[in-house]
Amino acid sequence: MTKHIIYVISIPLFLFVSCNSEADAIVVEETIINVEVEEGQNYEPKNLVVYSIPSPNEQMNLFYNSNAKFDPSLILPLSNFSRYSTDAKKALNFGVLMSDGAYLTRFSQSKGRWMDYHTTLKNLGKDIGITESFEGNLKNNIEELANDSNKLFEVSSQYYLSIYDELIEKQRGVELSFILSGAWIETMHILLTSANKYDENSEIQTHIVDQRFVLENLMGILGDYKDNLQLNDLLKQFDEICQVYLKLNCENFDLEIENREELLILNGGSTCTFDSDSFKEMKSLVKQIRTSIIS
Amino acid sequence: MIKFAHLIFGSLIFIGGNSFSQCEHTTHHITPNFTNGWIENSQSKIVELHLGDDFEMKFIAQAGVKYRIQTSAGQKDFTKNNISFQLIIKEVNRIVEKGIVSYKTAEVILYDSELSGKDDEAIIQTAKTQNLSIKVRIHGTEIDPNLAFCSIVLIEEKRSESHDLR
User: Fold this and answer.
1) What is the separation of C-alpha B141 from the centre of its chain, rounded to a whole number of angstroms?
2) A213 and A287: one domain?
3) What is the nearest CA distance from A192 to chain B, expressed in angstroms?
4) Quick check: B82 and B73 in contact, CB under 8 A?
5) Which of A124, B23, B115, B145 could connect to B150 by a Cys-Cys bridge, CB 3.0–4.6 Å?
6) How far is Cα B47 from Cα B150, in angstroms, rounded to an integer?
7) Does A88 lie in the same domain as A210?
């Protein structure tokens, strides 16, 4: 015999950037979901929301196509990575290192540097409990590939997937959150410093504006670990970045969906730009957060 | 009052962030179509669910990148038969009423695998970077409601041909 139970689930719908804005009211919509379950079943259905963000490699791929130039001064010297003593700092800087590695390999600058980079990544990873990701197939090829930047870029992409899976499997969400945060701040640092000064028409600045979506999902991931004081502090710092994003000048265009055979093409949406002041503010804020991470 | 009670109940069972499970990596169950130039995107997810759970995944579609999305679910054997998904964009409209600014969201369903009638996969490219949602629904009588099973969202990507041709 089946029994019909109606679970009423309200789903908060996040705004374009989920900052804690005091100025604007947030409208919450409700959705009612009917779920049919067997009588006697004690399981209470969950409404699970999972956030994803692009890997540092996927971010660097877009940046690479923006006519950007490689600047070796933007990445952190490897000697820095042996100085961190707490797990939080190690995990944050592991993320920084992953982002620097994506930058190096995407811009074909890893020749002669890869083995040292790989050793540093492995040692830092071991300190925060990442062990399996550097074993197996990836390990065997590493020396052969050391001079092939394209292959190394693929390898570093695979590392990201393996590390992500390993931490999920080990239920190390806090460490993963620190890593993703460190990687994101380093990506922002590379983008903002490469963009140099405010230029409305710069393609790099479009990428920086697009990072508001990554930040929104990253804050969604971190939101699960608010009980961790350091992650909670980081979340507050990210909220400050969020507030700067809310200052952007945005223009909305109607969404247009085009079906081209099996491909769906989505045009429209909002186009946002910095002005000189908001760009400076963003740059200064990211610099301040990065300095606190790498010091 | 009822609305308020719903909100409280909803917030009690609302779970965000990462989901940890014993499910294996996505590509252990669905292989990316490497021969046609697709590679796995890092945003693919595998989540442990029970029958009746509702699962929404938010992912970033980067401008100009082509994405292929497919889902699969199972306990031991994986199939597309007992899982369906919708690809959604949330449109945010700014409303000013009596001097108060509010935002209202509307869901635009870009793809619904139950209505597609063919491959149960969505291929999408966005002109601007967008935050999209994939809403996954489990159905089918062959699933044991008392057991956890794995729900996979495999996202593959193909970059434009101009990629690497700077």
Assistant:
1) 22
2) yes
3) 18
4) yes
5) B23
6) 6
7) yes
A·B CB contacts under 8 A? 227
- Whether A34 and A61 map to the same domain: the answer is no
In this predicted model, what pLDDT tens digit does every residue of A203-236 receive, in sequence order? 899 999 999 999 999 999 999 998 999 999 999 9
Q: Does A1 touch chain B (CB under 8 A)?
A: no
* Spatial CA neighbour of A61 closest among B68, B165, B32, B124: B165
- Domains of chain B, start order: 18-158 (2.60.120)
Q: Is the Cβ of B48 closer than 8 Å to some Cβ of chain A? A: no
Q: How many structural domains compose chain A?
A: 2
Structural domain span for residue A104: 56-244+276-294
Whether A264 is in a domain gets the answer: no
Residue type, A220: G
Asked if B18 lies within 8 A of A176 by C-beta distance, the reply is: yes
pTM metric for this prediction: 0.84
| B13, B20, B104 ranked by CB distance to A171: nearest | B20
A107 within a domain of the structure (yes/no)? yes
Structure tokens, A192: 């903002």
Low-confidence ranges of chain B (pLDDT < 70): 1-22, 24-30, 118, 140-143, 145, 160-166
- pLDDT tens digits for A235-284? 999 999 999 999 999 988 888 999 988 899 999 988 999 999 999 999 99
State the nearest Cα–Cα gap between A205 and chain B, in angstroms.
Answer: 13
Residues A16 and A145 both lie in one domain:
no
Closest Cα of chain A to B81: distance in Å? Answer: 18
